[in-house]
Design a protein that fits this description.
binds adenosine-5'-monophosphate-propyl ester, 7-stranded mixed sheet, alpha/beta, about 675 residues, 8-stranded mixed sheet, globular
């Protein structure tokens, strides 16, 4: 981190613009009274009843927060509920014939589907019955490996109905990534599909799923959705062979009604694997009562969702944003949530704007990487469409640069829509730092203050609050209902990764426990937090989290590679791009072939999202005298920045060679 004087200067130089929330928005906002901040502070932790009482409980909870064994906090203890009841059944009387999911398929001529709450409820019940028939019991982990097809939320909700936690694996991940996650979660069930379309062409998906299954160390039952119909014939899959067909299963249970299983508030709703600093992905565990309360409340307070809205989040269900803010939060509120299967640039750069116009979308929630791409494509594409149905815009996943923020505010929101820049993580379950759109001034580039009742603070290396303008580390000082409860089967790693840094781990006093998300941040005199990015060895590529260790271990498995270091290089659209610095065994023969093998290995083991943008082959890597690779120097090389002090290196001469090779 830069030294403090530099940081102060930087803060002064960056005098921020700020914008009042538009009056037309404030008038109708779900939450508009600034007193909520003081009220939540005064009533903490009981303030969270405001979220919990938005749900229907089978048994009322007895305690809001049990903090007797930190950091293993429990929320709404004694309560029980079912998530699918909250997302479906309770809306049937009043909103049964309203659309729950507007599904927009990828080929433009696809028959889109408007699925009402009643229809969704029916299919969820039928598939829940089918899951039971193939053996799924309460607490069995069901893995889902599917793109943005309606059967994915159906499967998630069907699992929730019978008390089986799900683990959704992003469809763009490789067979190896699927196998790792199924093995780690002891998951004996998989729901997948034959294939899907990308930019109009059918892609084989079942081939990848089958390759993954071959590496799963236990027996599995697999359900396959036939997404491609005859267009999948070329891939030669016999869907009836060895697998269950989704449509047949559902048809066989037509009209089934499955009584929702009453789950304890602290029972697991789902697992979501995410990258950390070691090669092993972390199985983040979310629960039933706390998680659903958190995403329901934040969808209401931050996304301003109302039942009559047509809310559009352009994320993928394979990531936490899709779980919390396409499925669970919006459906719990009984609104219409959109799912778009395709990419924003096909068949043309105005695809999203055409969808917003056609469906009259009221909110749009997307990532800065997408906004930067829209900017690059040009304002003429949104200008072709009437976007006046939009009331609120949101961003998530990475820091947004003020220029992109202002472009979004102006060209998509027509200066009429507040923009919420929401900071959160897979682990936090839902938003933690953001302005409330009906209350807070917006400052482009800065996420805003912590939500009412959320105690996010920026601290220095010893955990003391930093002064305004100085850079430090983001922490959350008090627990919150949506927080992860542990890492699957690994309480020790949970404590080590998220708490050890700033907590007294021997203490049973919750005040001695501090959550550390591993993000750098600064705070201004109004308490607005600007998140600066990860401070661990985790990259953020297009808003997706990738561990450098995972990529390195794929690369060192390639024949001819002796050692590898992966760092993030600045990238205009993606935020960060994967740059690999690789020591090859036999010096530089066949360099192009080796580079290709390296890129292929990363795609095979993780997926195309982790593909190295640049592979630099070198005779050595810059190392300290104790043999540690100096990644910061490699980052400087990647970004063409001055190297700074290299005197602590064991091999300072190598840096010039690497610089030379990096531009070759
Ligand atoms: O570095 C932060 C960044 O994304 C990380 C979390 O990634 P993931 O668990 O994949 O979840 C992404 C979707 C919630 C954080 O540690 N991040 C997320 N939102 C923001 C952000 N960085 C800056 N500003 C944000 N609004």
């Amino acid at each position: 981190m830069a030294d403090s004087e530099e940081v102060e200067l930087e803060a002064r130089l960056e005098e921020q613009d700020s914008f009042e929330p538009p009056a037309s928005f404030v008038e109708q906002a779900n939450v508009a009274d600034p007193a909520i901040y003081d009220e939540f502070d005064a009533k903490w932790p009981d303030c969270w009843e405001r979220a919990a009482t938005m749900l229907d409980w089978d048994d009322d909870y007895e305690t809001v927060l049990d903090d007797s064994t930190p950091p293993f906090y429990e929320w709404f203890t004694g309560g029980s509920l079912n998530v699918s009841t909250n997302c479906l059944d309770r809306h049937l009387d009043e909103r049964g014939d309203e659309v729950a999911i507007e599904w927009v398929g990828e080929p433009v001529d696809e028959a889109n589907r408007s699925i009402t709450y009643r229809e969704l409820h029916r299919e969820v019940n039928e598939f829940a019955a089918a899951l039971r028939e193939i053996g799924v019991g309460e607490d069995d982990v069901v893995t889902m490996y599917m793109p943005m097809v309606p059967e994915l939320p159906v499967a998630m909700l069907a699992c929730a109905r019978i008390g089986a936690p799900h683990s959704v694996v992003f469809a763009g991940f490789s067979a190896g990534a699927l196998a790792t996650r199924m093995n780690a979660a002891d998951s004996e069930y998989l729901v997948t599909c034959d294939g899907y379309y990308r930019r109009g062409d059918p892609l084989d998906h079942l081939g990848k799923a089958n390759d993954g299954l071959a590496d799963v160390g236990h027996e599995t039952e697999t359900v396959v959705v036939d997404r491609l119909g005859p267009n999948g014939d070329d891939f030669g899959h016999d869907l009836a062979d060895a697998h269950h067909g989704y449509a047949d299963l559902v048809a066989a249970h037509e009209g089934a009604e499955i009584a929702p299983v009453s789950r304890d508030a602290e029972d697991m709703l789902f697992l979501m694997y995410t990258s950390g600093t070691t090669g092993e992905p972390k199985g983040v565990k979310h629960t039933t009562g706390g998680y659903l309360s958190w995403v329901t409340w934040t969808s209401h307070a931050v996304l301003d969702i109302k039942p009559e809205d047509t809310y559009f989040c352009a994320a993928d269900l394979g990531w936490i944003t899709g779980h919390s803010y396409i499925v669970y939060g919006p459906l719990s509120l009984g609104t219409t949530t959109m799912m778009y299967e395709g990419t924003p640039d096909h068949p043309d750069y105005d695809r999203l704007w055409q969808i917003v116009e056609e469906y009259g979308a009221t909110q749009l929630y997307t990532a800065p990487t997408a906004i930067r791409a829209f900017m690059k494509w040009g304002e003429e594409f949104p200008a072709r469409h009437d976007l006046s149905s939009l009331r609120l815009l949101g961003t998530v996943g990475e820091p947004i640069n003020p220029r992109a923020w202002k472009w979004y505010y102006t060209h998509i929101g027509d200066e009429e829509c507040p923009v919420v820049d929401t900071w959160w993580q897979t682990e936090t379950g839902g938003m933690v730092v953001t302005t409330l759109p009906g209350i807070g001034r917006m400052k482009p580039g800065s996420a805003g203050p912590p939500l009412p009742g959320a105690d996010a603070q920026v601290v220095d290396t010893v955990g003391e609050s930093v002064e305004a303008g100085r850079a430090g580390y983001l922490t959350v000082q008090k627990p919150w209902p949506g927080m992860l409860r542990t890492l699957y089967d690994n309480d020790e790693r949970f404590v080590e990764e998220y708490w050890a840094e700033y907590s007294d781990t021997d203490s049973s006093d919750p005040d001695d426990w501090v959550y550390s998300p591993e993000d750098g941040a600064k705070v201004d005199t109004d308490g607005y937090i600007t998140v600066l990015g990860r401070v661990d060895d985790v990259l953020n590529v297009s808003g997706h989290r990738l561990g450098t260790m995972e990529i390195e271990s794929a690369i060192v498995g390639v024949d001819g590679v002796a050692e590898a270091a992966v760092v993030g290089g600045d990238h205009e659209l993606k935020g960060e791009a994967v740059h690999a610095y690789v020591i090859s065994e036999d010096d530089q023969n066949e360099t192009e072939a080796l580079r290709r093998r390296i890129v292929q290995a990363v795609e095979d083991e993780i997926g195309p999202i982790a593909r190295p943008e640049r592979v630099v082959l070198t005779g050595d890597l810059p190392k300290t005298r104790s043999g540690k690779i100096m990644r910061r120097l490699l980052e400087n090389v990647s970004d063409g920045e001055p190297l700074g002090d290299t005197s602590t290196l064991r091999n300072p001469e190598i840096v010039e060679e690497i610089q030379r090779r990096a531009v070759e």
